[in-house]
């Protein structure tokens, strides 16, 4: 599964990862330092925040109720904000593109 992270400075990090990983794990495994993921995917930190690109929101789905609550702690939350540990990468998300926020906390 190919995923692309757009950095705040305009550069891009692209990586190919096995299906089944979360988007957060894809970032950590590929040196995308903007994703901090303090809680390791336990949905209790909001430091794995990303903005899902237009056109991908339908496919990533909506945040769960608990994710919604955690997103309240994300810096500069927007309508397309998601916590990347909650996005599981499957073939349907091949080509996914997300933007990274200026900061996580
Ligand atoms: Fe902590 Fe996603 S890694 S909420």
From TrEMBL:
Example of a GO biological process term: P450-containing electron transport chain
Cross-referenced Pfam families: Fer2
Gene3D superfamilies per the UniProt record, alphabetical: 3.10.20.30
InterPro entries for this protein: 2Fe-2S_ferredoxin-like_sf, 2Fe-2S_ferredoxin-type, Adrenodoxin-like, Adrenodoxin_Fe-S_BS, Beta-grasp_dom_sf
Residues in 2Fe-2S ferredoxin-type domain copies: 1-104
GO CC, one annotated term: cytosol
MF terms (GO), sorted A to Z: 2 iron, 2 sulfur cluster binding; electron transfer activity; metal ion binding
Cofactor(s) demanded: [2Fe-2S] cluster
SUPFAM superfamilies: 2Fe-2S ferredoxin-like
Keyword terms of this UniProt record: 2Fe-2S, Iron, Iron-sulfur, Metal-binding
PANTHER family: FERREDOXIN-2, MITOCHONDRIAL, FERREDOXIN/ADRENODOXIN
Family to which this protein belongs: Belongs to the adrenodoxin/putidaredoxin family.
Protein name, per record: Ferredoxin, 2Fe-2S
